[in-house]
Amino acid sequence: xxxxxxxxxxxxxxxxxxxxxxxxxxxxxxxxxxxxxxxxxxxxxxxxxxxxxxxxxxxxxxxxxxxxxxxxxxxxxxxxxxxxxxxxxxxxxxxxxxxxxxxxxxxxxxxxxx
Length: 114
Prior knowledge:
Layout: E1 2-5, H1 6-24, E2 28-39, E3 48-52, E4 61-65, H2 70-74, E5 81-88, E6 97-107
Parallel strand pairs: 1-2, 4-6
Antiparallel strand pairs: 2-3, 2-5, 3-4, 5-6
């Protein structure tokens, strides 16, 4: 199992995304970061997803959820600091992607956070 931050995973993606994808594909990954984007479509063809950390509205790590985890994921707010346990995906074309994520810990954003 790997344990790292969303920023650390993004750095590996920036360095060599194919090597990063091979390293984490099918492996358990605990990733910690701040909720930056939330995407919960009502379509069965699209994945429910939270993006962690990032810049200019683009997350550094994409975390997708199975149906039985969606309600927990939907309760998270923008800015919450979370740790997910996931499995590395085999498609990193848009950034580090993790699937089958489960919430391990969460901490609400501080009152002064934006």
